Amino acid sequence: MSTQDNITIPAELLPRDGRFGAGPSKVRPEQIQAIVDASQSVMGTSHRQAPVKNLVAELQAGLKELFQAPDDYEVILGLGGATAFWDMATFGLIRSKAQHLEFGEFGGKFAKATTKAPFLEDSTVISAQPGSRPVPQAEPGVDVYAWPHNETSTGVCVPVERVQGADDDALILIDATSGAGGLPVDITNVDVYYFSPQKNFASDGGLWCALFSPAALARVDEIAHSGRWIPDFLNLKTAVDNSRKHQTYNTPALATLITMNEQVKWMNANGGLEFTTARTRESAEQIYHWAEASDVATPFVAEPEDRSQVIATIDFIDEIDAGHIASILRANGVVDVEPYRKLGRNQLRIATFVAIEPTDVAQILQCIDYVIDQIR
């Protein structure tokens, strides 16, 4: 195998936009223009005043439209991203015991947070090897069932469904950070569908958004008045109260709100989730079909029904160094296709988020084929 890195991919093979990262993701030019357009009216102004509060209200309404949420569901926002939300949920949504599905990095992190909490019972964790998925099991006394809709580290997708036989007041919490907006979902099957905006919403991190059911809102109130000590920043009751005023507890990044809102408007204008999920499915299917037909690559997720349509992970035979391919692609402007670092596999991880053009996905596959021919 050649060790040369100075391979030039022909221009006609290159995608128009070379960003395929699992987050932060590609941002569309129209989103940047939205910041420019708001440079005098929103940027640099108070987040407690009408211009920013109107922006937040528009974003909240747009997300309810996108997910076809019932009238009594509410869009709640806060700062810190999904990582902060795990701690907030630990304090403010779990009454006594949680059950987690762990099949990659991110489901495991939430499970660690709830297990360490001294005021909760030890969590039940149902695990599966990376590349496969576990199934939630009804368990008496569990008042929160939690799992990622899409495991960003492995490219495994898990359906969002109610847990049959669960206690009547048990809540379903879904970490939708890399799935929201790009995967099908019936929002009535979940009580808290939470996500960060740097994936399908093509914005920056540091913010979390969530759709809360009436049952989840009631649980927030219950725990907030239970006497449990909760830090102000991690208090979901504070987040709910501020969100109802179309604001966040402390100052948000306005550019993040602007770019996310612009993306949501674009999604809804083109047909909502029907449009977005068809687009991600088209992109992902190209990659999986390519890998299945290849003599050097194969989909990492063995079962087709478990494969994500927003994150595609592809293994390569030992004779083909995926890291070498990624470095050559990067030198040619096609970036962020390296695998999740802790997974430690000889693979590429290609995002197929909504902003990524399916035609560009077709181009990156041509680029990979070209590089493989050059280094074999």
Descriptors:
seven-stranded mixed beta sheet; 376 residues; alpha/beta; 12 strands; three-stranded antiparallel beta sheet; aminotransferase
Can you describe what's shown?
The strands form three sheets. The protein has a seven-stranded mixed sheet, sandwiched between helices. Strands 10-11-12 form a three-stranded antiparallel sheet. It has a two-stranded antiparallel ribbon with strand order 5-6. The longest helix has 21 residues, at 273-293. With 376 residues, the chain is an alpha/beta fold. α1 crosses α7 (254-269) and α3 runs parallel beside α4 (105-116). The chain starts with 28 loop residues before the first helix and ends with a helix. The radius of gyration is 21 Å and the shape is globular. α4 links the parallel β2 and β3 (124-127). It is built from ten helices and twelve strands.
Low-confidence stretches: none
Proportion of β residues? 5-15%
Mean pLDDT: 96
Overall outline? globular
Question: What about the largest sheet?
Answer: 7 strands, mixed
- For the secondary structure, the number of strands is 12
- Distance between termini? 5 Å
Strand order of the largest sheet: 1-9-8-7-4-2-3
**What is the gyration radius calculated from CA atoms?**
21 Å
SSE succession: HHEHEHEEEEEEEHHHHEEHEH
Summarize the structure.
By secondary structure, the protein is an alpha/beta fold. It is built from ten helices and twelve strands.
